[in-house]
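User: Sequence in, structure out. Go.
Assistant: Echoing your sequence, followed by the structure tokens.
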Amino acid sequence: MDHAAVIRAAWNDPANAARYRAVPADVVIGQAMLETGNFTSTIFRENRNAFGMKLPASRPTLATGENRGHAVYNSVADSVRDYVLRQRNFGIPDTGNVSTYMRETVGSGYATDPDYLRKWAAQVLAVAPPGSLDHAAEITAVMFLILLYAHR
């Protein structure tokens, strides 16, 4: 199964009223690949959880339960839809500026790894086929990586 294609379809699904329209799907696919070890983690396989999300205590969710300390979903597509709900709940902007979207996501407490942003940016650049991100988004991501490495 092409998990990236499932995530792309759910991310771009026009039936998902809350979906993000300006954020390229490759940004989210890169994050899912980072979170799941390229779709091989136990949490992904058992819970159909593409983003390593915990069961939320106070926001609306599509999760059906909890396993191994993480949310369980009926499908990977539901996991993507719940990620959108999470992003909206935390006020993450629907922006075509990849750097802003990624910084806002990490700044909302998404991950505890202090190197998460660099790893995510590197994954996005590895996943996105040449030309799939607009030129400004590609330059932003590359410059962001350069700045991160320069300040290490």
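User: And one key feature?
Assistant: The chain has seven helices and two strands.
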